Amino acid sequence: MKRRVVVTGLGTINPLGHNTSETWEGLINGKSGIALISRFDCTDYPSQIAGEIKEFDPLNHFEKKEAKKLDPYTLYALVAANEAIEDSGFLKNYTPDKAGVITGVGIGGILTLQEEITKLVTAGPRKISPHFIPKMIADIAAAQISIKHNLRGINFNVVSACASANHAIGTAFRSIQYGDADIIVTGGAESSVEEISVAGFCSMKALSTRNDDPLTASRPFDLGRDGFVMAEGAGFIVLEELEHALKRGAKIYCELAGYGMSADAYHITAPSENGEGGARAISMALRDADVQPEEVDYFNAHGTSTPLNDKNETASIRTVFGEYAYKLKVSSTKSMVGHMLGAAGGIEAIACAKTIETGIIHPTINQFEKDPDCDLDYTPHKSVKKDINTVMSNSLGFGGHNGVLLFKKY
Question: What is the value of pTM for the model shown?
Answer without folding.
Answer: 0.98
